[in-house]
Amino acid sequence: MRAWFLLLLISGAALADDAALLRCRDIADASKRLACYDAVPVGAARAVQSQPQPSPEQFGIERRTSKTELDAIESHIPGHFEGWDARTRIKLANGQVWQIADDSSRYLYVDNPKVTIRRGALGAFYLDVEGSRGSVRVRRVQ
Length: 142
Known about the structure:
- The protein is of the alpha+beta class.
- It has two domains: 2-51; 72-140, no CATH class.
- It has four helices and eight strands, in the order H-H-H-H-E-E-E-E-E-E-E-E.
- It has helices at residues 2-25, 30-39, 41-49, 62-65; strands at 72-76, 80-84, 89-91, 97-100, 106-111, 114-119, 125-129, 136-140.
- It is rod-shaped, with a radius of gyration of 24 Å.
């Protein structure tokens, strides 16, 4: 889907640039004509660069706010962490709060563990905690 949007964006810029190419073609002085042609692709490059970049703060809720996507984020759980039960809420150092979305439970006794939350299939998110084997499905609540 993003590829089609990018193609549409570039083709729109290309159509606008066609008029500029026609204007450049009519310039008699060779150096001015060359300078005119050199300036034409700048519009297409600006159109591609103006797309918003994904931000870690929006990870997990970007479908509500934006069409950009990250594959994963990394953070840590501040303080002592003893694991989770079903529906446990986990607050990360970056301020995000994630809730366990399945009935799993795991007991860990670690301090300030690093975590990775990665995107799975069909809109799912998975939490990997340093020192734990396997992943648990989560959903962002804040």
